[in-house]
Design goal:
The structure is a homohexamer. The first copy, chain A, has helices at residues 17-23, 48-66, 96-111, 128-142, 175-184, 200-203, 238-260, and strands spanning 29-34, 71-73, 117-122, 145-150, 215-217. By secondary structure, chain A is an alpha/beta fold. In chain A, helix 2 (48-66) packs across helix 5 and helix 5 crosses helix 7. Chains in contact: A-B, A-F, B-C, C-D, D-E, E-F. Chains A, B, C, D, E, F: This is Creatininase family protein.
Chain lengths: 265, 265, 265, 265, 265, 265
């Protein structure tokens, strides 16, 4: 399974059912990219999160397969839980319960194969907690080993690192995400970047915040201004985006290796 | 809107929210491909239906846009209602109610834009009745004009025409579908085609049947044999597949034109 | 079981539980009429669809029993999926999901008897796709053989044949349906028939249409005018209604015979 | 509206939508019989509860209309919440949530007419609490005045009075119910009546019991023996049944009059 | 288990899982208080029903344990089905379906222990029918013996006896309930008692009424006036409240003894 | 509102509806403790999480009120999302969807008062992601400002700090939680503490882990050994528990102050 010249066989759905059935074993890892189709400011495409999740997952699966892991990439779940951007025309969002049920059923189907492990590579911060919830459903109901991670290298939100002056709040269409899309799909990024929109007052709070702070709060993206941006896209560039992308791929590939050897307890 | 050199702008999710918002009008048509990831015999890839729906929809939207229609392609809904193949490892299926709710919510988001029309281009026979139901939900709840059609040229099932000796029952992984995949993705078709599997007794019935017969019946694909094929893939070829594909694209493009001018009553 | 003088024993619910249990065998066929209570123009009763479904099912079961089939008639499900007439006072409609769940549970109960076959005889076009979906649920979940058919002789909508100048669109309260109610319940038909209301423009379309055309579309009956009629009731008469009714009964009875001998594959 | 020679106009669904719309006023009362299709011992038909509910409701509506009330009879909801008899072949039962949702939707449709009052005439003890719950849903959500009552004269269970030696526990297929069916449908009652089956120990309890006792308890009918009877059908006779039936009709008709004049507060 | 000096061990959730597991047997009875947080006029606290349910259940369990019963008190379900008071700020209510599902899941967990019996001690009239429904769910689905009763001594509503001139309608924040809260939590009762608010016209009706009358009706508490009181709190006093409370405790304790010895049939 | 001598008025449900209505303003903050009833090893009570959430919330609300905040404490939601302990007798758990819906409905009721802010103080790590999801529902659907935080001082899981040799994995019934219960309810802690049970291999992983690590994974507590403990309770003591408790109270009180002044953007 370590032949890097056969990436096509890494696609679950490229195979026929019997061929997949023959290929899968208890060691197989099913990887499902999960994205979103949502407003990302006036400069990034609506499919930013689906694009990043799919690109990172594809590259990481390819790399992991090349290193001998028995990984399989499933079709991307493009539509996500984007209720925080429901107000913005173009956003196409699912209720959390609908997305959760869809993913539970995808897990249920995977559980009927020999594969015992499923991994969700996620491009959208708004999906993170749903995926954490999902992991436990799949473990309890179907006995799967289920993992979720962001397509970036970080542990929260979309996992993409921002600029220091984003104050840890470059979580949506900011420096990092803009840079990554510039790298992956430069033609889809508008040259007119919107201005910095960092909720500085929140950044200065001790407890309340977006990630890594101990008090979570409900918000929709129009709570912070009309552009829907949270962060600072100015100065974003493809070179930085490439670096972030590579870091994300390395992280996911490395995590897949860790998952391969994972045992509870 | 008739500039054929700008196909990228035909992708809903390639645009930013504000750019899409500016581009859409009451005349805009949102096109959503709907597929399935399901067992298609030992010779066709699991993503056959998603592949065909997406390929036909993309080509038809491109053609329709070139002829001046204001059409927009949304990301494919890859996972479908494949409960008839639930028994076959590799099938990844959603409960009908989950898929219906997902599509209702996609329609709800579209209804919040200026676009008033949505079209589902479907690659999977098992989705057909759900989409008919869906059209009415979107009409009643959100006032949308909602249409569904098969990615093939016919009116039932996946709409792909079979061989005469399939007796109108080449509905799954048979001559037509195999030919189309040979055209679209030859590398994904196994050269070892499974034998003909046509439920001849059913073909000889007067009332009960798969399509176009007046009595519908519940079945799962293993009711007709172990391969899951219903039809006869032998003799399938890319040339015929190309012809069917082109016919499907022409049909969908032509239907989009009809939809563009559609008025009730 | 071929004694035509005992039609009462053809009623599932006329028997006691133990008597029914003793009478049923693996060959038994449970028949469930499904109707609707909905606006049918200013001239037909709201229960038109329930009336026709029940009358046809009763007569067909009686005839089938007389010819030796082990058929059983269950109480009519009167309220249907009439969301297309939600706007018209008097319509009493169920959400599709509620009707589907009700019918799944009816099937579940039937599956706990010795009978392995269930047949839905349907009087309402708006139920057709739901019943097709239902058949598969009952097959997959409970292993039943499940069939659905229209109470008329046709294959789509309510299955009643219209007049040629209805252009295939006499689907609701038109020539055929009005004639059948004139035959079955002449006292319930208003002598003041509403005028012809045929969506001629749609009839002229190549792809989009009500039945037998390849593009389905969402509509509510007020999309075509204030009467809710789709078709042409003028000239309807009981004699023609009788002929249509007899044809429907013959069709259902014949279909029941086919079902009796049905084997998959 | 007090012409007793026109009972047909008392049927909601016999009228066309516009005719009904013209006939209804704020004083109109919509009456919905609710039954069950469930095991009633070896001697009574499965449709006992639907039969009684419909017969009583029809007679009471006729009588009430004759006395000048603006009452309307809707089609019977035949299938009820019979989970206590789920174990007995022939029972066709709905989950409580499914029945509740169906009745809420029926109420919703009624609320879209001029009628402001709905009455559920119930033939099945197992529906009682669901209907009490339902009344409040219809009041709060749609502003309806909603009432429920048993088709018998009593206040609990199916409301039919039993024999003294049934110890207040003749609640299912016992003396009263058997007598009523002997009156209404003598041909459907088996001459071989099952023996008395009264849970005497429970009758002797101070707190726990079926009706009118302060502690409710969960049971299924097989908890009390294999026949599913709770009570004593021996000695049941049509004459007594007629008396009970007349009492039930008088009760419902009288209650309808009270409802007609009902004001809150 | 009859040591009255160890009341703490009567609390299910005070024990560790293994300690509880060791303590439970087939004879164990799990008691769940169910209340409501809802408007109780201008003089009683919102948590009146939760307060009474918990206080009665605690005292009754203590007494029952002292007499040798193996009873266990679970944490109170404070939020109930208070849709009749939805209009009053401060009411915190659950949809009936949400509360039912919650209680079914609580029963499901109890069914996974050795205990086979669950008892719901209820402080809120609006929960009564839901609990009756619940009992059957727990019996059918999990084989539990499930009982429900009011925390007062009566059999309907909240079971607290009123004053004669409340005409059997002192069902909410009237003489009895006000007295009990004066006894249990005098500091929470406003000295300014609202005036008598008894729907006298309804009291005079023959069929329609709140409890013990044969016709149930839907109402919200603002149907009877702006205070939300139904009854007459004037003259309420702690001495009477104490008597009622003691009567309620005695009733529940006695009922628990009956439950301990309960056998079906 | 800053009179510390009136803590009783800090209880939402101790007041009558009208009194609460008069007391609430747009500045009011509704605080809802959320716990769990679940296995916490052989030494801690099942209600550990509910106990801590309630105790911390009560103390913090009292302190915040004393400093002039307009905070109100609602009744504790005792039963939580404990699916990871479903296997252990005594655990009483709710499906996530049931708990989420319950909390959404609690928020809906709060939104009908003048209060615009709701805070969930959580004692159970398994509720964390559900509460994050909930915050957004309440923001989007009802316009509330919604916050959630752990009853401990940390940002993840139950927020209680462990011992260094727990390697960041003392997340359930370990050193911190055991110490806090020793402080709050010493009589409920078994003197026989179970041995250390730290999944050291997981601690050594780079990506996968319980909190603060970038890869989340599905687990149930029996995945790590038979005691259900994850951490090391040995050495736990009330003095440390008191310190942790005070830190938690200070954290929540401080967070409430921050919430009081919170503005978006």
């Amino acid at each position: 399974m370590s032949d890097p010249s056969a990436p096509a066989t890494r696609s679950w759905a490229d195979l026929s059912g019997p061929a997949l059935d023959a290929a899968l074993s208890e060691r197989s890892i099913a990887v499902v990219p999960v994205g979103a189709i949502e407003h990302h400011g006036p400069h990034l495409p609506l499919r930013t999160d689906a694009l990043i999740a799919e690109a990172v997952a594809f590259a990481a699966v390819t790399r992991a397969a090349a290193s001998g892991l028995d990984v399989w990439l499933l079709p991307t779940v493009s539509y996500g839980k984007s209720d925080e951007h429901y107000w913005a025309p173009g956003t196409v969002w699912l209720e959390g319960t609908t997305l959760l049920e869809q993913l539970v059923e995808i897990g249920r189907s995977i559980a009927l194969t020999r594969a015992r492990t499923v991994v969700f590579v996620n491009g959208h911060g708004g999906n993170v907690m749903l995926l954490g919830w999902l992991n436990r459903e799949l473990r309890r109901r179907f006995g799967l080993r289920s993992f979720s991670m962001s397509a970036g290298a970080g542990g929260a939100g979309d996992g993409l690192e921002g600029r220091p002056d984003e104050l840890g709040q470059g979580i949506h269409a900011g420096f990092a995400e803009t840079s990554v899309v510039m790298h992956l799909a430069p033609g889809l990024v508008s040259p007119d970047l919107p201005p910095r929109n960092v909720p500085e007052r929140i950044a200065g709070l001790r407890h309340i915040g977006f990630n890594a702070k101990p008090v979570m709060f409900g918000w929709t993206s129009d709570d912070f201004g009309p552009t829907g941006v949270i962060g600072d896209p100015t100065g974003a560039n493809a070179a930085h985006g490439r670096e972030l992308f590579e870091r994300g791929v390395a992280f996911v590939a490395d995590a897949l290796a860790e998952i391969d050897g994972f045992v509870y307890g």
